Amino acid sequence: MTTAIVREATEPAEARGLARDGVRLLVHAENRVEHTVFRDLGRHLGLGDLLVVNTSATLPAAVDGYRADGSPVTVHFATRLDEETWVLELRHADGTPGPVEGVRRFEAVRFPGTGCGMALLLDPYPQEHTPQRLWKARITVPQARVETFLAERGRPISYAYVPERWPLTAYQTVFARDEGSAEMPSAGRPFTTELVVDLITRGVTIAPVVLHTGVSSQEVGEPPLREWFSVPEHTATLVRQARRVIAVGTTVTRALESAVGADGRIGPARGWTELLLGPDRPARVVDGLISGLHAPEATHLLLLEAVVGAAAVRRAYAAARAEDYLWHEFGDSSLLLP
Fold it and tell me: Has this prediction a pTM greater than 0.85?
């Protein structure tokens, strides 16, 4: 897919005078494209359809910090490895795109304030990655848990296309229950309580999984890094029984497909996944998905193609560009069916 200029959503739908479920919805089904609004999702789903959602909650994972030379940085807490060890990314405090360069092993990044702690950078993560964008780091903070420190000192991760800071509530979905995502599982953002009730009354079943997202910088062409996921037994059972399985987002798709065994059947599973869906590994249990709009060069597009095929993705994205859909986490949405 060629690179093209797209319109970026610079603020939440609510700031544009819309309800969350008032964003636009592009529906691709049976080789046709329809333009509607997200609150009408139920017209395209029905009895026997299973909608699988991600219950991971977004952390306030961006924190101010200072390098040894006193230069300010923004520290992105990307992935929790254990109680004291996290994967971090250092970004420019002035909003300049891209990660901070020239970072060295065993460099200490201090958090402002007396006794507020530090991050000691140990190794590039993963070690074979070049350039060295992500770092495994040991975190020392006075709070008992790093998550408590983030709750007190952090803010949601955001990028230059969102010029204003928005509260953490703007980055939580209606399904958020299990804290752990560095960035919002944004495909679930347009759902509202009212829409969920409407879907249930139409006979749509809703089931949960968890996948804690890392930082999205790999959209520049790097493959997705490993992420922690959980598919409970009752969700796996519902997947096996469903007429159609519709994943709400690439995160849900990755979680479900990571729980598929060698026999092609899904079962309960939890742990770390490195699964990369694409031409060499098509989807086996996911029949369609709801997704925001990803950058044309994003590796996420390979995952979309693994579910609905390259032709469907090309057709849908061409229509989205032609109709000026809004991209990124606060933007418009799509329902892609093969």
Answer: yes
